[in-house]
Amino acid sequence: xxxxxxxxxxxxxxxxxxxxxxxxxxxxxxxxxxxxxxxxxxxxxxxxxxxxxxxxxxxxxxxxxxxxxxxxxxxxxxxxxxxxxxxxxxxxxxxxxxxxxxxxxxxxxxxxxxxxxxxxx
Length: 121
Known about the structure:
By secondary structure, the protein is mainly α. It has helices at about 5-15, 20-60, 75-105, 110-120. It is rod-shaped. About 10% of the residues are buried.
């Protein structure tokens, strides 16, 4: 750790009222825990999006046992617009959370350093 990082860590430790060595070890141990929590939240989000997609698809398409879809054209448009926009948002969150989780698992010291820099700014 370079001198500037030590100074930032010391500032944050003073704000929290703990020793900087303790703060650093806690942050390094916290990295995989945060990564796992992010992955679980992302999995739930992706699962909910898949359920919503299947629901909208079932309600807006014709099937062999139905001659008419359940929703009118305007309802179909808004439902698919919401599904598409939320799908784009889910993919963006997936990419961000996945890179953060990989960083936290593979290099927890780097993750801890970034958290310190975010907290001090």
